[in-house]
Each structure stands twice: as C-alpha cells, then as structure tokens.
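RETRY 2/3 - previous attempt timed out on the joint model. Re-submitting the same 558-residue input unchanged.
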Amino acid sequence: MSQQLRSFLAAVGLIAALAAAGYVAVIVGAATVIGQSETGIEESAKSDGWRGVRSGTAGRVSIPDPQAGVLIQSEGEIWRSIRNGPVTAAGAWSMFVMLILLAVFYAWRGRIPLAGKPTRREVVRFNGIERFAHWMTAASFIVLALSGLNLLYGRYLFIPVVGKEAFAVVTEAGKFLHNFVAFPFMAGLVLMFVLWVRHNVPTRVDLQWLRLGGGLLSDRHHPAAERFNAGQKAIFWIVILGGVSVSLSGVALLMPFAFPIFGKTFAFLNLFGFGLPDVLTPMQEMQLAQVWHAVVSLGLIVVMFAHIYIGTIGMEGAFQAMGSGKVDTAWAEQHHSLWAANAEESVADDDAVPAAAREGQG
Amino acid sequence: MARMKFLCDADRCIECNACVTACKNEHEVPWGVNRRRVVTINDGQPGERSISTACMHCSDAPCMAVCPVDCFYQTDEGVVLHDKDLCIGCGYCFYACPFGAPQYPQAGNFGGRGKMDKCTFCAGGPKEDGSEEEFALYGRNRLAEGKLPLCAEMCSTKALLAGDADTVSDIYRERVTARGFGGGVWGWNTAYGSDT
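RETRY 2/3 succeeded.
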C-alpha cells in the first residue's frame, strides 16, 4: 500500500469516526439535556413554588389537556438550541465532507472498471420483487430526504431566492408528501428485510473482504464475496436499523403525543447503566423524537451518498444489477465470486438456451 | 416606541377565567383553541396562586427561531405575529415555546395540525388592519383601533396588565410598594431576558 493511499485511508477513517462520535454526542447530549428540566434555569424564581413553575411543574387548568397546566417548559429553549445549532451544523458538515471525500476518491480511483472482457453472458442478480423493494424504498427515501432537508435548511437556502410565499407552498406540499411517502418507505424496509436478511448475516468471508479493502483501492485485489460483500452488508444493516429507528420516531412525530417512545427506550437503556432520564413529559418526548429523527436521517443521507456513488458512477456494471437486474458473468465473477459460482450453475439449468444464443450473436 | 408586554399579578388573579372568555369571544376563536388560559398552582394548598397566561411576545422568540418557513415577525411594538398563509402546521413553534402558546385546530390525517393560532396581543396579523380577512384569520385588531388587549381590559381585579412595558411595570412596582409584597413579575425573565 502506498503512502498516499494510507494517508487517504487514515483521513477517511478519522472523518468517519468523528462523524459517528458527533452523532452520538449530539443525541446523548440532547437526551440528557432535554431530559433534565432543571438545566439552564436562571436564579429568577424566588420562592419554591415559583421555582417549581420555572422548572415545569404543572398546575391545574380547566382545559381538558393536562399539558396546558405547564406554565413554563424550558426544554423548548434547549431543543431550539440543539436543533438550530449542532444538528443543523453537523448535518451540513457531514454531507459536505462526504461529497468531498467521494469527489476525491473518484478523482484518485476513477470508475472501478470491469476486470477483463465481458463474457456477454448474463446472470440474474436481483429478480423483479427485489428490484421493486429496492426502488420503492429508494424513491420514497429520496422524497423523504429532500422534503426533510428542506425543513432544516430550506429557510436559509431557498427563502432568499424564491421568497417566503413560494417557499411555504413547496414546503407544505413537502410536509404532506413526507407524511404519506413514509408508508411506502416503511413497507420497502420490511420487504427488503424479508428478502435479504438471510444473505446479510456476517461471515468469515467478510473479514477477508474487509482486510483487502473490498477491492476498492486497487484493481489487483479482488476479494471473494458471497451474494453481498461486507460493504453491502453494512449498508443493509445501517438501512434496516436506521430505517426502523427513523420510522419509529417519524410515527411519533406524525401523530403528535400519541406514541411516546423515548421514556421506555431510556428505561431499557438504564438497565445497562446509562443513567438517562426515563420519566419524560409529552413535550420532551416530541422534542427528542424530532432531534433523533433529524440526526438518524442525516446519518442515513450521508451513507446513501456513498451508496449511490458506488452504485452509479463509482463502478462499472454496478447499476445494471439493480437496473435491469442482470449482470455479466465476468462482473459477477469479479465482485461476488462465491455467489457467481452458484448463480451460473442455476443459469445453466434454467436459462441455458438464451444465454448460449446471446453468446452466439456476440 | 412602546414595547408591549403582558404582566400577570399572581397575588391578584382570582381564577375567574374572564380573560379566557373575553379572548374567545372577541376573536371568535374556534373550539379547542385556547389563546389564553388560567393555570392554578398549589391548588387547594397553602400558597395557591393562579396565573393567566398566553403568548408573552418574547424578545428573542423561540417560535420565530425554529419556524421552517419563517412565518413569524415582530412588530415595532414587540408583538410577535405570524402569517397563516405561510404556516405549514409543523408544530415546531409549540415544541420551542416556553409558555405553550401555539395552538392548532385539528385538521387532516393522523391527528395532523392545521394552521397555528395564538394570542396576537389583539394586534391582528399581516392582512389589512381591521379587514374582514384579518378578523377571520387572526381576530380583532384592537391595537390598530387604539385599544389594548381585551383580556387585560376586562380583568376584574386588574391582575392582568397589558401595554407598554414601562407603564405596566410602574403600576406593578407601585402595587408591590403599597401592599408590601409581590410574587415577582411572572415569566418576564423567560420572555424578555434577565435585564428586564
């Protein structure tokens, strides 16, 4: 491995670690700070009663909603500073850094080529239902990501350009889209999980793949891989776990105050000694749901930049695997050698005639 | 230029809810929307106090800061108003507001929110002053008519004061001096910062 390459890898690793640490810090910070209502209260409240009011003690109201009994909720100020501060900044930075990294990688490595000549014999890599699951999730993710990013950044980016009226129309449409497109996204998650979980169990092969850097770094190394290599398995689990998490917090936001999930989650985490506040007001639940939803979504968006990169311009022959669903046997051999062996056998059984015919034409 | 503020004297409020009723009636606020409410703390205990509360028209208003469509604006008199034509009903202002001021009519699917509604300090909204359109969306614009908010004007014990901050705090200071006690200007630090 060259010196240049090693420093590049070190930089990637460092940035990934920093980004991950940043996300963890933001959410743990948010959980602790929003959960502790005493934080940030000035010395204004004179008597005990007033101090109680200042820290969110509820009184009695004739309105049926007991939440209205809370006179002052200070957590809102904390939520505001986290959302408008670290979440906005870390999200923008991590997206920016990922795009730069990908551009640098592309400039350095170029498009990863197909090794050797295509055989012009094709094997089915993803069948119809698999591609349907992928593209349903992908299309809804893009709609959700754009409408979500618009809520966080649109005010700063687009209002100066298009004005408030036009922006509000688009953003309201985006809100409704976000609410409804969430359902195909969740359905896609379930479908992908059912279809692919058995191919995504980590195995010994993955270690070897990781040790060789997945063949990303040089044309000389082609580590063996099963149907999914370690990188794809990582994407799979990030999407499934991140997707479930973003869905749960999304449902909590979609139906305000109906699904408090953080108190229970924190109570569970406290079994492991996290010491998180597990008695949360409905308002704290919503604030945490928003912060969590934003942080996990931004994380998924950043990961998807890399996924989209490698699936399109980053690698020759990668897109057609999920596009037409068929790949050249040479590509299969190069990238998924262990899977290719089996796949070609089954092609020989089921699909021998057309494959042979194509070869004849070539 | 005056800086409009609310002040509720908790040593005077008798929880009659006339301010709430006056507000609902003056602005023809729909069911389920409470621009103003009265909260009783230590109910039935020694030290029971009631406070009438609504939007405090904060100096550095959290609702303004978090609104994704930037629909809020603050008038020269410090009144925080919003444009319902822009509001998308996301609910962020409600998560940010220390005083629970933003209200939402139930609208749409999944318990979704309609356009946010809140106390306007009886100052209407961005439509033409006193127009029917303004009344339908935001309620009466009493400030434009040279009047102060009705909740405070109606208050039988004059616990709730509304108007120019200097005048309001002068009245309160006089009271505290005369009677020899006072619970403090409730909510002012949160709404207007510690220098008030």
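Helices of chain B lie at 18-27, 62-66, 92-96, 132-138, 150-154, 165-179, 188-192. Closing ticket.
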